[in-house]
Structures are given as C-alpha cells and as structure tokens.
C-alpha cells in the first residue's frame, strides 16, 4: 500500500512539473515587449521630422534677427537725416526772418539759391549745391557730407508780400549717400518751410 501511494505522489509531481514548464507568464511577455521597444529608440522618419522642425525654427530666428538689425540701422540713418535737415531749416529760417531784404530773383518761381541781406548789410547766399550734394552758405555747408540732396527737389521760392515784406518757401530732400543701397534700407526725408522777412521802410 505504501509503495502504491508513493508512486501516485511521484506521478502527480511529475505532471505538475511538466505543466509548469509549458506555461509562460504574461507579465514576462509584456516586459520583454517593452524592453524591445526601448532598445529600438527613434525611427529614421521621426529623426528627420525633428531635424526639419529645428531647421525651420532656426531659419525663422535668423530672419527675425537680421530684420531687427536692418530696422535699427535704418532708424539711426533716419535720425541723422532729420537732425541735418532740421538744422539747415533752422539756420536759414533765422537769417531770413531777420533779413533787411532778399536781393535774389523774387517772382514766385523756384530758384537754386537765395541771397539774403543781413541787418549789418552784409550778404549771405544759400545754395542748393548739386555738385557737393549739400545745402551750402557763405560759411560752409549746412548738411553733413554723409548725406545728399535730391537734384530735382531743392529750391527757394521768393514771393513779394507788400510793404517790403517777402515770403520765402524752402524745400529740399535729404537721403543717405550712396545709390547702391537696397530700397528698403535707404532713408530719405523731405523738408519744407515758409518764412517771412520783416517789413523795412526804404
């Protein structure tokens, strides 16, 4: 009896052992798939997409940077042009206002120059110097040599007003020197003003 019970126990253990060997634990299977995915990493397509996106972002950043630089440079040029134009207008306007007379042609027609008789009877000539590209006077130039006036847009118009008074219209355009600049980088401003002389009895 003991011998048969011992044999039955051995048979059951053998069957149990065989069954355990043939079954795979699902948890081990899932873990293996995850490990396999991690080992694979990024695919070639994913890498190419990332590189393309980085390239596009880089190009946009460079364009914004250079646009900012161009805008800053143009702002500086415009500032210099405005300062020169304002100074020339102020200098000529002050002398014309205090002038005893204007002896240049005064018939309401555009002229390239204006002759002003000062309170001490000396004369000052303002000139659109197209050769130098500047607004000139007896004492020198009123605008910087880094700028130039437009050939066809610089004039003095004298108009009689009665009782010895005269109206002077001044107009000129200033731009950065050099015609090889791209249009978007070129800075140009037009200046104009009207000044009246005092009435003097002759």
Shape: rod-shaped
**Which structural class do the helices and strands define?**
alpha+beta
Largest beta-sheet details: 5 strands, antiparallel
Order of helices and strands: HHHEEEEEEEEE
Low-confidence stretches: 16-23
Query: How much helix is in the residues?
Result: 40-55%
Average of pLDDT: 78
Number of helices: 3
What is the CA–CA distance across the termini?
160 Å
**Strand arrangement across the biggest beta sheet:** 1-3-4-5-6
How many structural domains does the protein architecture include? 1
Radius of gyration: 45 Å
Number of strands: 9
Proportion of residues in β-strands: 25-35%
List the SSEs and their pairings.
Blueprint lengths: L1 H21 L3 H15 L3 H54 L3 E2 L7 E2 L1 E5 L5 E7 L4 E4 L2 E2 L5 E16 L2 E12 L11 E9 L6
Antiparallel strand pairs: 1-3, 2-7, 3-4, 4-5, 5-6, 7-8, 8-9
Short description:
With 202 residues, the chain is an alpha+beta fold. Helix content is 45%, strand content 29%.
Explain the overall architecture.
- With 202 residues, the chain is of the alpha+beta class.
- The chain has one domain.
- 45% of the residues lie in helices and 29% in strands.
- The chain has three helices and nine strands, in the order αααβββββββββ.
- It is rod-shaped.
Features:
202 residues, alpha+beta, four-stranded antiparallel beta sheet, 3 helices, 45% helix
